[in-house]
Amino acid sequence: MNDAEALKKIAGEAACEFVKTGMRVGLGTGSTVRYTVLELGRRMAEEGLDIVGVPTSIATQELATQVGIPLVELGSLDGLDIVIDGTDEFDPQFQLIKGGGAALLREKIVAQQSKAMVVVADDRKQVDCLGAFGIPIEITPFACDVTISVLSSLLNCDVELRTIEGKHVLTDNGNCIADARIGPSIDDPVATEAHILNVAGVVQVGLFNNMCDAVVLASGEGVSTLMNPNGRL
Ligand code: 5RP
Predict the structure, then answer these.
(1) Is 29 near ligand 1, meaning CB less than 6 Å away?
(2) Same domain, 160 and 146
(3) Residue 49 sits in the same domain as residue 110
(4) Does residue 98 have its Cβ closer than 6 Å to ligand 1?
(5) How far is 220 from 209, CA to CA, in rounded Å?
(6) This prediction's pTM
């Protein structure tokens, strides 16, 4: 395991401390929170932890099933106690950019139903100003080129349809993903989110504002938990 992967593992596993028996847990998507899911499964099998989970993607659903975490429909619950998820960037105000794994819509639906959100990250994700990663935006396949053109004018930057090996990336919801190459310049993430959401054709945007309560952060010095002073934890 290389250093970057080791940091993901440290952060992902450490975040399990927030999870207690009886909790309804949102399970995020990505290569960092993957370690959280694996560790929760281990604790259920070996230590008597008893939880139910709601996955934020088909990939996480499959992983959670493999490790024995019972899954339920979000709508069958009266909310979730916590969601643990990864991020692509977080800033000093605990605002996030997510969607590098194209799961942002389900991630945001689950996060909005959670009493608390804990993010797992390594220190490459910590930024002073959001935007270097770009902003992932889930858009409808219908007229996606038109929506991209509108977004490009709105944000005054290149907006690219995400592709892998020449094919459009499709989300678990059958939509496309666009990436706005805005650069580290998002001074007002709340306003930027609202402006993007106002464009017809946009399904959801990967700006997660005022949702994150804590970041479990791994670096070469070890793991630490940054608590949002305005958060719910
Ligand atoms: C998926 C996400 C991921 O949480 C984000 O991309 C971080 O992933 P990783 O831990 O693999 O870097 O938002 O839509």
Answers:
(1) yes
(2) yes
(3) yes
(4) yes
(5) 28
(6) 0.97
Look at the chain and report how many structural domains it folds into: 2
Provide the pLDDT for residue 2: 83
- d(C-alpha 206, C-alpha 97), whole Å: 5
Residue 233 lies inside a defined structural domain of this protein: no
Following CA atoms 112, 182, 196, 115 in sequence, which dihedral angle do they give, to the nearest 10 degrees?
10
Whole-number pLDDT of residue 132: 98
Question: What pLDDT was estimated at residue 22?
Answer: 98
| Gap from CA of 130 to ligand 1 centroid (Å) | 15
Q: Is 104 in the pocket of ligand 1 (CB under 6 A)?
A: yes
Mutate to test the pocket of ligand 1, among 7, 98, 169, 179 (most ligand atoms within 8 A of CB): 98
In this predicted structure, what is the pLDDT of residue 113?
98
Give the distance (Å) from ligand 1 centre to CA of residue 51. Answer: 23
Does the annotation mark 165 as catalytic? no
Residues of the chain with pLDDT under 70: none
The per-residue pLDDT for 1 is 79
Distance 104 CA to ligand 1 centre (A): 9
Q: Which atom of ligand 1 is nearest to the CA of 121?
A: 10
158 and 87 in one domain?
A: no
Q: Which domain holds residue 22?
A: 3-126+209-227
Is there a single domain that holds both residue 222 and residue 120? Answer: yes
**Per-residue burial over 114-130, b = 16 or more CB atoms within 10 Å of its CB, e = otherwise:** bebbbbbbbeebbbeeb
